[in-house]
Amino acid sequence: MSLGSVPLKYRIQIDRQQCMQCMRCVYNCSYGVFREEDDGNILIDSRKCTACHRCISMCPRDAINLSEHPVDYRSHPLWTPQAREDVINQSRSGRIVLAGMGNAKDYPIIYDRLVLDACQVTNPSIDPLREPMELRTYLGQKPSKLDIRKQENGEIKLNTKLSPNLELQTPIMIGHMSYGAISLNAQLSLAKAAAKTGTYMGTGEGGLHKDIYPYQDNVIVQVASGRFGVDINYLDRGAAIEIKIGQGAKPGIGGHLPGEKVCTDVSCTRMIPAGSDAISPAPHHDIYSIEDLAQLVRGLKEATEWKKPVFVKIAAVHNVAAVAAGIARSSADAVVIDGFRGGTGAAPKVFRDNVGIPIEAAIASVDQKLNDQGIRNKVSVIASGGIRNSADIAKSIALGADAVYIGTAALISMGCRVCGNCYRGLCPWGIATQREDLVSRLDPEVESEHVANLIKSWTLELSELMGAAGINSIESLRGNRSRLRGYMLDEGTLDVLQVKPVGA
Amino acid sequence: MEPVHIDAKGLHYTPLNQQIRRAVSEGATEIIVDNVLGQRFIADGLKGEVTIRINGVPGGDLGMFMNGPTCIVKGNCDHAPGNTMDSGKIVIHGSAGDAVAHSMRGGKVFVRDDIGYRGGIHMKEYGEDHKPILVIGDNACSFLGEYMAGGIIIVLGKSDNTFGGRGVGSGIHGGEIILRGELKERQLGVGAKITEFTEEDLEKISPYIEEFCGSFEIDPEKYLDTKYTKIVASSSRPFAGKYVWE
Description:
The complex is a heterodimer. Chain A has two domains: 10-72, Alpha-Beta Plaits (2-Layer Sandwich), CATH 3.30.70; 161-179 and 186-254 and 287-501, TIM Barrel (Alpha-Beta Barrel), CATH 3.20.20.70. In chain A, 30% of the residues lie in helices and 17% in strands. Chain A has helices at residues 24-28, 54-58, 81-93, 184-197, 232-237, 264-270, 290-303, 320-328, 349-354, 359-372, 390-399, 408-413, 436-439, 444-468, 474-477, 491-497, and strands spanning 10-14, 34-36, 42-44, 64-68, 96-99, 114-116, 137-139, 148-150, 156-158, 166-168, 172-176, 201-202, 219-223, 240-244, 255-257, 278-280, 310-315, 334-338, 347-348, 380-384, 403-406, 484-486, 500-501. In chain A, helix 4 (184-197) links the parallel strand 11 (172-176) and strand 12. The longest helix of chain A is centred in the C-terminal third of the chain and has 25 residues, at 444-468. Chain A starts with 9 loop residues before the first strand and ends with a strand. The model of chain A has no long low-confidence stretch (mean pLDDT 95). Chain B is α/β, with parallel strands linked by helices. Chain B has a domain at 95-233: 3 Solenoid (Pectate Lyase C-like). Chain B has two helices and twelve strands; from the N terminus they run E-H-E-E-E-E-E-E-E-E-E-H-E-E. Chain B has helices spanning 13-25, 199-216; strands at 4-7, 30-37, 51-57, 67-74, 87-92, 108-111, 133-136, 149-155, 174-180, 192-195, 228-233, 243-245. Chain B has an eleven-stranded mixed β-sheet, with helices on both faces. In chain B, helix 1 links the parallel strand 1 and strand 2 (30-37). The radius of gyration of chain B is 18 Å and the shape is globular. At the A-B interface, helix 3, strand 5, helix 5 and helix 7 of A face helix 1 and strand 12 of B. Chain A: This is Archaeal glutamate synthase [NADPH]. Chain A: It is an enzyme of class 1 (oxidoreductase). Chain A: InterPro entries: 4Fe4S_Fe-S-bd (IPR017896), 4Fe4S_Fe_S_CS (IPR017900), Aldolase_TIM (IPR013785), GltB (IPR024188), GltB_archl_type (IPR043578), Glu_synthdom (IPR002932). Chain A: [4Fe-4S] cluster 2 binds at residues 29, 49, 52, 55. Chain A: Residues 10-39, 40-69 form the 4Fe-4S ferredoxin-type domain.
């Protein structure tokens, strides 16, 4: 600390009576909060703390205590401590403030103002224990009609040519987090979990490391503006291909993986020189229009001989519905909408907290627009960005999504405590880091089990929620807004969501 | 093996590519495609050691994701030939549109005449055997070599028109842009700088110039001197220093 600095964000205290000086905190903290003195005492530098909770979770005596904002500012409703500290930070640095994880601004959460329905007396509820519940989800283009003919020998023949679809055992997928942004062990855990639960995980724009090849049938490969790691073998390996146009945490801007994180292995997987910044430009420079997007979609399909679904991911922004309608006409098989609460390893704070719209409104408006135009069957809708539990998933599907991507939730299941310092590359949980000693803390066998458990438990809860509502197939929940009610939502939002208020 | 002939007249790009793929899988080393008129994605994602002679004007994204083959086009090209190409060669006996060699990671693209905007954008090199080379016989438009992360772009200016574009090499963080003649500072994009073109540089690019000229039966002698401007990145970390931690 220096004179003139702002108060510390967190204070770490050790209960010296409880502490047995095992030094686990010293070893575990990658930020350097703890130091062992010659006399065996532990010295604390709270200013370095990020509230990652690694020390707390590793302390065998529960001797460590953490308090947030231990020093008060004069309270003021407008000039929050955060507002004041950003001004101080920027007036000293003259730079853009970089932040990690999702939107940290206190916007109302629409999910928490939507309630689900259940059956009482009429249309009896279903017990998933004794009735089959269909959660299997197919992503991709569906035909608008089927031409089925009975042949002379009595056999039924389908004359309609079907588009390739992805088969999911649960409508929950793991979103795109690149090798580089996260560690290989973290990505491996996610891939194993996807394979275990019959779903898919995304590579992000970091290429496909050879260690992930065994799970490639459960992997969606991403093509973003930097085209990192993209070659024909990469495209051939993926179960599906996703074009990333935008990201909910930072709509409209590209990404920069700092050179420090581009180690040899990351550079090989991304196919870029080691140590140089990996820069994804803001737009794809071969996509300046919706026609150009169709060109890339078809280019990818042509390269893979029209055998794989191609998704297009966009950030939820004001005109998301119109853009999605354009995507639906581009030969794409699914549109992924990433809401403004979507996570990130690093984003300018001003973008993360202020650009884009909530995913709930985006799902509803996209679903409605596609239905109005009679093209809902042409694309599946995948929602992501701030999905925290199975209720959020059920509500997303009822608003019109086919499936969801989870990101932050999957990371939390692997140890992440949402401290938001991902961009520093020091993640003590071995997730958002490439430092070998930290990465080795994350055991893919154990963590894949945790991620798989999370998906399993949410899938169980989904079937319970559906059963209670008398619904035995995910298809009957999709876009079924009559099973939602808005609680304390304004009329305008209810209108966008096409949801009635509670009691109506 | 005799060259395989394909008549592309009235053929959609998918069946055309299917015919090309089939010929390659049957061991063809030379394929001649006649009457090409706007078919996109020719040789898209194609692997192997084959020469495809394209007679006519192909549509966009010729040789996209291509890995190995050589495409020789007798005619002009639409946008982005060599898009995200991994290895192989595209020789264009004419001009090409915007975003030529976009994100190309390896291989060569030779354009006899002119190219449009954003030529060589985000070209990148990797390892020993991935170094993309884009050579343009005459002239290029603005935004040449933006976000470039590796490889070499050479503009020969054969009709002696000066390069009038701007925004050259915005965001460049690797590779080299080599322009025949002079370039003014104001024509540079952010993050790019002009350095001296030396004899060593000439030695490095001579083989490419000779190969280019050989493809079009041009005498290379005129171009084997040091009358070039070399544009490189002012830093391999153009975004370092832009951000501060929360």
